[in-house]
Amino acid sequence: MEQIKQHKCHGGTLSYYTHQSQETGTPMRFSLFTPPEEIKTGGYLIFLSGLTCTEDNFTTKAGAYKKAAELGMSILVPDTSPRGKDVPDDENYWLGQGAGFYIDATQAPWAKNFRMESYLIKELLPACETHFDLDATKKSIMGHSMGGHGALTLYFKYPQKFVSCSALAPLVAPTQVSWGRDVFKAYLGEDEELWAPHDATECVQRSACADTNKTILIDQGMDDEFLRVSLKPELFETACQNAGQDLMLRRHVGYDHSYFFIQSFINDHLDWHKKMADL
C-alpha cells in the first residue's frame, strides 16, 4: 500500500492509496476514511461508485465523513475499473475504463484486466482488513447507479461477507436494459444464462440467497433522468416481493441522479448500516 495523500477530516483521517493488483494486473487506487481512534468501532462500509467515476467522486462530493466520524465508521471507496494506457477502453462511457461493473469479464479484450469482482472480494477487502485493522465481521456494502448494481449483486453472491446492503438509484436489471445487454455481451459473451448472476433482479428470482432477516434499503429519485429507461426499480421490487426478500424502497419526488441526491440521503444510509452492524 502506497499512501498518495492524507487529510484530517472531522477528527478522523481521509487517505488515498495505490497498490499493484494481481487480479487486474494494474495499479489500483482507493480512498479510506477512518474515524477518530477513540470512537472507532472497527465496522466499515465499502461504497461502490457509478459509471465514469473514480475513487474521488464519492470522497469529495457525498459529504459522508461527518456522520461516519460520529458513528465511528470507516468508509472504503475503490476505483470503478482498472486504468492505464495498456488497458482496453471504449468510446461508449458504459464500457471500458470507468465502467468495470464489478464483475469478472471473460471475453477479449476485457478478460485480462477487467476482474473487478475478484479484485474486490479476493484482494482489496482482505488486504484492507489486515493492513488497516478493519473488522471483517462488521462489513457493509452500498453503491450508486452502476455501483448500486455492484453492491446488490455482490451482496447476493457473498451473503456471509456483508452484514447489510443498500443502494442509491441502482441499476437493478441490466439484462433488461439495452445498453446493459451490450455491456454483458462485451464482457461475458453471448450466453445470456451466464449474465444472470450479475443481475440483481435475476439473483432474487433464481436463488435461495434472499434473506428475510436482512432488509435491503434503496433510495430512488423520481426525477432521475435514467429512472424509466435504465434503472427500473419496480422490477427489483416485484422480484423481492415474490421471493420474500425484505426491501425498503423509498421514492423521492424531485430528486435526480446526481451527487446532490446522494448528499441528501447518505446520512440515512450510514445510520442504517451502523444499526445493522450492531444487531
Record keyword descriptors for this entry:
single chain; Rossmann fold; 21% strand; globular
What does this structure look like?
This protein has 279 residues and is α/β, with parallel strands linked by helices. The chain has a single domain (2-277), classed as 3-Layer(aba) Sandwich (Rossmann fold). 34% of the residues lie in helices and 21% in strands. The protein contains 9 helices and 9 strands. It has helices spanning 56-61, 65-71, 116-131, 146-157, 178-188, 200-206, 227-231, 233-243, 259-277, and strands at 2-9, 12-20, 27-34, 44-48, 74-78, 139-144, 164-168, 216-221, 247-252. A 9-stranded mixed beta sheet has the order 1-2-3-5-4-6-7-8-9, with helices on both faces. Strand 6 (139-144), helix 4 and strand 7 (164-168) form a beta-alpha-beta unit. Helix 6 runs parallel beside helix 8 (233-243). The chain is globular and about 50 Å long. The two termini are 32 Å apart. The mean pLDDT is 95.
Short structural description:
The protein is 34% helix and 21% strand. It has 9 helices and 9 strands.
Number of domains: 1
Gyration radius from CA atoms, angstroms: 17 Å
- By oligomeric state, this entry counts as single chain
Number of discrete helical segments: 9
CATH topology: Rossmann fold
CATH top level label: Alpha Beta
First-to-last CA distance = 32 Å
CATH superfamily: Alpha/Beta hydrolase fold, catalytic domain
CATH architectural type: 3-Layer(aba) Sandwich
- SSE order: EEEEHHEHEHEHHEHHEH
Largest sheet data: 9 strands, mixed
